[in-house]
Specification:
It is built from no helices and 20 strands.
Length: 192
């Protein structure tokens, strides 16, 4: 812990980081080739009050925000693989601004491949022209969750897998989604 950074970059195994409504981060599981394990799931806890950056490990990082949890800062999971940012509770707008990069509430994220909204709420996933998520966006169960597309593109096509899931192809950039109801195409696109 230095200069307001919580750094897990030396950890190679998968991490699950739970942020509760009191803005306490609990490291729920950490296994380093079987040599480190926690007897109590809350054995490692950190207050996020003075933290402005969380750096994920080299494995699969999962950042779970419970209902009422907040964080004003950056989550950098660039070293990880197939990472997930999941936020429960209130309605949110997720802005995807670059490659696995964006902002939701006051959380700036980068290196996050999967985004998951809360159940029974309204999540809006806004993809800027250069926005890309290499994994999945998931609006969660129930609620009214949307995908909004912005920017200029040559070609856009859609492939529905079910009423609430499918893919969008923007100039060979694939967006895979689950748990979304409408898609708003606000792009300037030559071919649809």
């Amino acid at each position: 812990l230095s200069q307001n950074t919580l750094d897990f970059s030396d950890i190679s195994e998968d991490l699950t980081l739970l942020i509760d409504s009191s803005n306490t981060l609990s490291l729920n599981n950490i296994l380093n080739n079987g040599t480190i394990s926690l007897l109590d799931e809350n054995a490692l806890e950190f207050s996020l009050e003075d933290i402005d950056t969380i750096i994920g490990g080299k494995g699969q990082n999962t950042f779970l925000f419970e209902e009422g949890a907040t964080f004003d800062g950056t989550i950098d999971s660039s070293l990880g693989i197939n990472d997930t940012l999941a936020l429960s509770g209130e309605d949110r707008t997720w802005e995807i601004t670059g490659f696995d990069t964006g902002i939701v509430d006051n959380i700036n994220f980068k290196g996050i491949e999967n985004l998951k909204g809360g159940d029974d709420n309204q999540d809006t996933f806004v993809f800027e022209s250069s926005g890309h998520i290499s994994g999945i966006i998931d609006g969660g169960d129930a609620g009214f969750d949307t995908l909004s597309l912005l920017g200029n593109h040559d070609t856009i096509s859609y492939s529905a897998k079910s009423p609430n899931s499918g893919t969008v192809n923007r100039d060979n950039d694939i967006i895979t989604y689950f748990g979304l109801e409408p898609i708003y195409d606000n792009t300037n696109t030559a071919n649809r």
